[in-house]
Amino acid sequence: MKRLIIVTMIISFLVTASWSLAQEANNAKTSPAASSVVDEKKIQDLKEKLATKVAEIRENQKRGFFGEIAALTKTNFTLALNKNEVKVRFDDDTKIFKLGKTRTEAAASDLKNSLTTTVLGLYDEENKQQNAKVILLQPGQLHFSGMVTEVNKTAGNFTVKQGDDKTQVFEYEKTTTADEYTEAKKTAKSGLSRLVKNDWVEVWGTPFEDDNTKIEAIRIFRIPQALLGKPAAEEETETSPKPTTTLKASPKTSPKASPES
After folding, report:
1. How far is it, in rounded angstroms, from Cα 217 to Cα 208?
2. Identical topology for domains 62-138 and 142-227
3. Cα dist. 47→6, 26, 36, 52, 146 in Å?
4. pTM over 0.90
5. Is 65's pLDDT higher than 60?
6. Residue 58, phi then psi, degrees to nearest 5
7. CATH architecture assignment, domain 142-227
8. From CA 125, how far away is CA 177, in angstroms rounded?
9. Mean pLDDT, the chain, as a whole number?
10. CATH tag, 62-138
11. Fewer Cβ in 10 A, N or C end of the chain?
């Protein structure tokens, strides 16, 4: 629809311009003082006006997107939105900043998969691509998924094993919000005391400024292991038949006849 509007505006502009040039040509034929050729300067002015109009239309395609970086390359990445995704192209002219307590300048080397970011720029409707002018990194919104392997309620943290077998310890703070999926297929409030081994969790967290290996949990979504089914190792243990021991019958001994008196 946007492309149709843009094309219509350009065609309208060209029609108006052509009519003006035709008028100029007619005036030139009827006026003895006029040249037989339409003024080249006016044609050049018209071209410049057309180029300006096209540039203005393109500028109106300014868009902003918010999501997580995925499939990162040297000049492109995919921005994963809630239910969709958009291709993003960046170059040396793209301004990159880190958002935290203060805004600091960053570089393309700071772009990482799974980082939450806002991308501002011009959207190319034809190629379905966002040409980034400004990228705002929000390192405080890292996302993790995995199985709970340990819960330390005394220390206030829990450990998650991710799909690549890496483990990550998360610090549970007073500001951490937690929800869980219930058997009634609804969500309910949860917390550190509700986490148990083999639960599946989605965790959003913030790296500590003094130690990037430590993550402060901002939000947790728990799926109880009871709803996931028992781990394969446990199922195999329970379903495997227990070995039975066959007792051999001890040989019977015939009673000896007592001697006759």
Report:
1. 10
2. yes
3. 17, 20, 21, 9, 59
4. no
5. yes
6. -65, -40
7. Beta Barrel (2.40)
8. 38
9. 76
10. 2.40.50.140
11. C
